[in-house]
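input
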Amino acid sequence: MLSEKEKIALITQISLDINEVKDIDMLLERILSKIRKFFNADAGSMYIKHRDMLRFSFTQNDTLQKRLGAGKKLIYSTFSIPVNNQSISGYVAKNKKLANIPDVYGMNGSEPYRFDAEFDELSDYLCKSMLAVPMTNQRGDVLGVVQIINAQNEKGDIIPFSPADELAIMHFATSAALAIERAQMTRNIILRMISMAELRDPAETGHHANRVAAFSVEIFEAWARENGLALDEINRQKDILRMAAMLHDVGKVAVSDLILKKPGKLTPKEFEGVKSHTYLGAKLFLEERSELDEMAAQVALNHHEKWDGTGYPGHVDPLTGKPSPGFDGPGRKPRPKRGEDIPIYGRVVAVADVYDALRSRRAYKEPWAESRILEEMKMGAGTHFDPAVIRAFFSTLDVLQSLAERYPER
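output
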């Protein structure tokens, strides 16, 4: 339990933290963890509103997490519920009213909503106290619902949320809504850029970009923990990487659709045209006005490099596509990049991109079976992929498979 002095300090810190996070997925994780800490809540969930539905977007549960052990993450399904009075969160969103329930199993039936015990039954968890609040913007539009579960006292006993908690969570919900609205705008801008690439390459969809980005964040986090990076630094870099990885193929907007949409095998000259999307994408971010520009340029330029030096484009100047000064190879071609010459973000996105490509349908192939994909990824360690990144990939595979279900192809 936090002291009053600690709570006051945390209120300020929460507002600062959530305004620093730019990516919507990273933001939901940060908001929920900070709010749960403030109220000493064992669990919680975030719902984002889309038209007349609430999408279950993020969850945390300390009790279930402890059962998994260190280094493992909760796996949860994404689903949607109607904005109506049939559920607690639906009621909160529909009526823009807070719901503070001391015991969800002790409701007498007069409430305008009901509690669905299915999750408790499936997970062997017991919800008791619940506090759910709408997140509304300055126009009064509901952006989503934050729901925290099982407040605890100093001994760890489950207690009801207090009336004072209601006032505090309303404050947090207002700050969260403003941050979520900004993050949604950022995500939408990125998706519009990807839509331009999709006009040239039908395989370059927002769903593919979202999957590659989500995979990249999980792989990077596993790699970073293994390599001893501080948690604050991991979280900061995850936020930037989530957006940068979405933009890995944005350079395809500058490649001829005669090449990208060609049904047959490409000529060597045409393949050189495809390879140009790496440095053309990096070129978009060369003014480096932010860490996102820097990371997006690194990802775009390096996500087709291979650990053994057989990838592309090698050491090139993104402005010209020609060898970087001092990096001419045989025949005045760019010298290959290999090993740790390739930035870590490029090595991570390379794994995420290949994994998604193999499991996806393309005009030239059907999706591979998961067993065949995993064998291919394992065989690529030390040649195509950084062995340490492949270890991180396999350590978080169950999470990656769950994430893939969030962004299915249309």
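quick obs: The chain has two domains: 4-183, 201-404.
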